[in-house]
Amino acid sequence: MGAGLSLLYRNLAVGLGVLYVLLFGISYSVGRRLRRQVRLNQYMAEHDALTDLPNRELFHQRAEAELQRGAGMGVATMIAIIDLDRFKEINDTLGHPNGDQLLIALGARLREQLGGPDALARLGGDEFGVLLSDVDEPELMLQQLRRAIEEEINIDHLPLSVEASFGYVVAPEQGTDVDTLMQLADVAMYTAKSRHLGVVRYHESQSHYNASNLALVAELRHAIDVNELVLYYQPKVRVSDGRIDAVEALVRWQHPDKGLVYPDDFIALAEQTDLIDRLTTWVMKRTLEDLKNFGPGARDLTVSVNVSARNLGRAGFAATVVDALNTAGVAPERLFIEVTETTLMTDPDRAAVVLSDLDRGGVRLSIDDFGTGQTSLGYLSTLPIHELKIDRSFITDMMEHAAHATIVHSIIVLGHNLGFSVVAEGVETAEVLFDLTATGCDVAQGYFFTRPMPADELAPWLTRYKPLDTVPASS
Length: 475
Ligand code: C2E
Ligand code: MG
Ligand code: MG
Description:
- The termini are far apart.
- This protein is 51% helix and 20% strand.
- By secondary structure, the protein is of the alpha/beta class.
- Strands 8-9-11-12-13-14-15-16 form an eight-stranded mixed barrel, surrounded by five helices. Strands 2-3-1-6-7 form a five-stranded mixed sheet, sandwiched between helices. Strands 4-5 form a two-stranded antiparallel sheet.
- It has 19 helices and 17 strands.
- Helix 3 (87-94) crosses helix 4, helix 7 (211-225) packs parallel to helix 9 and helix 11 (317-328) runs parallel beside helix 13.
- The protein has two domains: 56-199, Reverse transcriptase/Diguanylate cyclase domain (Alpha-Beta Plaits), CATH 3.30.70.270; 212-470, EAL domain (TIM Barrel, Alpha-Beta Barrel), CATH 3.20.20.
- Strand 13 (364-370), helix 14 (377-382) and strand 14 (387-390) form a beta-alpha-beta unit.
- It binds ligand C2E and magnesium ion (2 copies).
């Protein structure tokens, strides 16, 4: 009995020992696999899958570390943003897979020039970042990178030459905060791009930046995240019968301290940075959502969204718009994109490409603030435009200024001859509306009918609205 018991104990002990070794082995290998997985996840979170370069997040972290290190050693740090020119055309003509190949190849070239990936990142789309400390001649160094990008490259057996625009800043001289420095580099890059200057160092004269505006940009970035932006809508009235089949979305910022801030006070700032992309995307999505809630009388209502030059300059802008329409389940014909005449002229070739992409997607196009810029009529007649909006500076005072009335009448005739619908914005009085009715203007928009109103007020307003009460009969 005693011997049996001790045998049992021994077997039990051996069994437990074996079990322990087994469990240890399993837990060790699971642990190792987990650690490997964690490392892999971390790598993926910090790198761009296409080019295998560090991504924006890692670049940001490294820039912060580099700025600190630079400050400790008393050396300058340079941050540059590189944006490829006409990448969208390449993507569109050669297809996305080839566009991807191009990005991979250019990423590899930059890496080679910089002796490794540490100073480099793909910030997104066709944008790369470069971070270097203690460089004697940053401008020369970046020129060299630019030449490396421009060297002919073979994609799908096609020799291509790509150009790029560079903007850069130098810390601590021009700032010490990474977000601010990136914004300034972005402003410089945009200057380089719009003026075809190649490599440009940030200078105050390029932007509306000063300390308080910079703070505002940071606040605006946050405002988009926490939904402080709000959309107001202003109806567009059909002059012939007073009916409303369209509204324009106008953004405002419900600022926690300043109250309602108008777009003239923040759009230009947003346009100086990539913030305008997020703002426009937000406006687009919200508008398409709102459109579904404007009540039974609004089933065929179209909606206009204002878009900036910088949006048109982004690769894939038209695709983003089409995506937003698909996601919201809204027919493309219900969306008008308004671009100002000045926007068109920022880069007319580029605008023509994007507008025709949008047109192919079924979206309708409107030229805003017409009459203030210098569009050539030849150019205008080649664009797939549906609507011309006469700038309100001509409309509001046309009864007092004969020259303005003449301009308005001429634009109406011109627009009709080119096959566009003509809209007058800034209609404030019955006299102006009467004149517009007599001269055959198609659509009127202005305080005479109503000021822009919050989304939830539009449905009841539309229900109350009586066309025949407001539109004076034409003579
Ligand atoms: P816009 O697109 O030409 O819009 C018309 C502006 O005229 C609006 O000003 C509107 O409130 C105002 N308005 C309408 N009727 C009358 C009137 O009878 N009299 C007068 N004096 N003004 C009238 P708002 O909302 O302050 O917008 C100003 C500009 O800001 C817009 O001009 C547009 O260029 C820009 N904007 C507005 N929302 C957005 C947006 O979501 N994205 C972009 N990129 N720009 C926007
Ligand atoms: Mg507009
Ligand atoms: Mg306008």
